[in-house]
Design a protein that fits this description.
The structure is a single chain. By secondary structure, the chain is an alpha+beta fold. It folds into three domains: 71 residues, Winged helix-like DNA-binding domain superfamily/Winged helix DNA-binding domain (Arc Repressor Mutant, subunit A); 131 residues, no CATH class; 46 residues, no CATH class. The protein is built from six helices and eleven strands. The strands form three sheets. Strands 3, 4, 5, 6, 7, 8 and 9 form a seven-stranded antiparallel β-sheet that branches. Helix 1 packs across helix 3 and helix 2 crosses helix 3.
């Protein structure tokens, strides 16, 4: 049934993608996605008719919260796999990833091994002959940054296109690594890090991860007085200079963070 459904409306697609990780009323969706309220309302009405979205109107229609249905998630997954079959072809060329979709600040990327799981750089010009040599950027000249949508990385069998358990990270040049690049792949949803709002590359573009250093970390993550940690999988230090809200469930993490920020500061803490 889901195979016969194609999401052709740009508004419907944007809303459905947003609902993958969020929920909200018509007005909240309209404001967040910068879609006029009548257009958002009409798109949601069509999505409900297709059983892609559910409206929780138990307490009335006004302000009712919309959520994506399991059927809606399945349709989006099949849509992403359709893009994989269309744009990913076997090639002997070494590359890190392939662009399946780049619309506004949202990206869908394909990796055959070692996909990023946090903040990561992308080359502004992936068609450059020497992608790996970009090392003199200020963070915007040759490198742009994107952030992986939490829990969005999904691994699939290249043969059956069924979802599989993530394989272990493998190095280049080994038999296991070669088998992994031919037997499985990961689809990664990511969003561009501000101020970049668009990566102007067509679907099917192959790219390698550019070289980068501490000076290329986005200014908002590197101009603070307090180091709060490192970007996952790298040695790049993150420092913050504005208000920061962190939801921590570990008492150890809470103590470490408070100790890091307690110098020259008033600490208000609720002890267990």
């Amino acid at each position: 049934m889901s195979k016969s459904i194609r999401i052709r409306s740009r508004y419907q697609r944007r809303i459905l993608n947003w609902l993958l990780d969020n929920s909200g009323s018509v007005s909240e969706i309209s404001m967040t996605l910068n879609i006029r309220t009548p257009h958002a309302s009409l798109a949601l009405s069509e999505l409900r008719k297709k059983n892609l979205v559910h409206r929780d109107d138990l307490h009335g229609i006004r302000g009712a919260v919309h959520n994506i249905t399991e059927f809606g998630r399945k349709v989006l997954e099949e849509d992403r796999l359709r893009l994989y079959k269309r744009y990913v072809a076997k090639t002997e060329q070494e590359y890190d990833g392939i662009v399946l979709q780049s619309k506004d600040h949202e990206l869908l990327l394909c990796y055959h091994k070692n996909p990023p799981n946090s903040l990561f750089p992308l080359p502004i010009d992936p068609f450059s002959e020497n992608i790996d040599s970009i090392n003199d950027s200020s963070g915007t000249d040759g490198v742009i940054w994107a952030s992986v949508v939490p829990e969005s990385i999904k691994w699939y069998s290249a043969e059956s296109l069924e979802q599989i358990t993530p394989p272990n990270e493998l190095g280049m040049g080994t038999l296991d690594a070669w088998l992994q690049t031919t037997d499985s792949f990961a689809l990664v949803r990511a969003v561009l890090f501000k101020p970049t709002n668009q990566w102007n590359v067509p679907p099917g573009t192959k790219f390698n991860t550019p070289k980068y250093n501490q000076s290329e970390v986005p200014e908002i993550l590197s101009s603070g007085d307090h180091n709060i940690g490192k970007i996952v999988g790298t040695d790049l230090v993150v420092s913050w200079n504005t208000r920061l809200h962190a939801h921590l469930t570990s008492e150890i993490d809470i103590n470490l963070l408070i100790n890091s920020f307690s110098n020259n500061a008033y600490v208000l803490r609720k002890n267990p």
